[in-house]
């Protein structure tokens, strides 16, 4: 378990897009912490979703106790840099990208920070964790993919648990030397019945799309997830 408070970040990929503002409000009212916003370009990943216009449209609906909730933008696009300022202007708080999709990872991280957002690096199931070397000072979050990116509703890849523990160690060591905490987010196939193991391995931030939006009562699922995390 990590030392920072757990965050549940529902992915709107599985929400009803015909009433997205309502869905965003409903899931935050039901106890979610952040909104996870999956951006796919039919190039880096074989699917096409939403862009800055939709981020801007949901921004006024993404409120928690009257204050802006975090919009956690997960970019599955290539190239990355062109679109970063657009998402910052559209109200994103945190922007994560896949290093394979950026020619100059250090430059892209700097660009995200220069645009006033927190920055995250996303590791695919087969991307080695050494990819984090030389980036820790620039990042606020590591996002570990527990499915291959591109689609909601896939099954959690069990080998991710070991990878979470390995990254947890790296981040704990970094906190000891720097005094700075970096979040460890996991994305893909997270359900009530596996979230305890994911938390135990060391994740503190949990993306769940189909597990939440696929159910009638969002509050029940989110509460059940929190209970499992606390186990
Ligand atoms: C996959 C996306 C995920 C996905 C999560 O490329 O990054 O955020 O939508 O959906 P579930 O929870 O259904 O796996
Ligand atoms: Zn995602």
From TrEMBL:
Protein's name in the database? Ribulose-phosphate 3-epimerase
> What does the UniProt keyword field contain?
Calvin cycle, Carbohydrate metabolism, Cobalt, Isomerase, Manganese, Metal-binding, Zinc
Tell me the active site: 38, 187
Q: Please list the residues that bind substrate.
A: 11, 74, 150-153, 187-189, 209-210
Query: What's the top EC group for this one?
Result: isomerase
Q: Which organism is it from?
A: Polynucleobacter sp. UK-FUSCHL-C3
Q: Does the keyword Isomerase apply?
A: yes
Pathways involved:
Carbohydrate degradation
Q: Which family does it belong to?
A: Belongs to the ribulose-phosphate 3-epimerase family.
